[in-house]
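re the bet — no i am not wrong, look at it urself. input seq straight from the record:
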Amino acid sequence: MSKPLFVATGAYSCGKTTTLRHLASTRGSRIHGEAHRRVLDELGARTHGHAPDAPFRPIDTPEHLCPMCRKREFAARVLETQKAIEADARDGDWLERGYLDPVEYYLRTSGEAEYPWPEGEPAFERYALVFLFAVMPELQQPRWGKSREARAAEAERINQRLSALYRAAGFEVIDVGPGTVEERAEVLASRARHIERAILRTSPW
């Protein structure tokens, strides 16, 4: 492990961002926002055109580049951005999603069994811990023509795949159950402290 980084992952609307912001404001933790969102912001209007309250319909125009219509190209951009985020991160920093999150998204939307890694990939950090946020159905909202219940069921399936991907890659995954922001933040902070103390005890310096 080149540097101890912590990952918060889970399906959409599971409370990751709120909990990480709480860690930043109450404990001074350094947080890095998710690569997927950064790429969406960078592309701007090139991702627009899909109504969130209607079923998905592909847009086949050269200037359009969204994660559903240009799956492989978008995933590659997110992974490159993830590399830059991890290169900028320091010991003990928190990442909102790790490099296997865009892989899960790609596999889910493409129907492929494996991600088409270029030769030599992946070149990402070995995370100290991965925290998987449980689905909280009350946080789910209807979207893309799907009901609240359908979205919650889909979120559960996403979490199952994320758990399998991270564990298969050799990461320790900590399940973060439903709870208040304060309770969930304490789970993250206490486990992170434990790892950091263990690293200090084994450091030659």
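see?? Helices lie at 16-27, 35-43, 71-88, 100-110, 148-168, 181-202. told u. also The first helix runs from residue 16 to 27. so pay up
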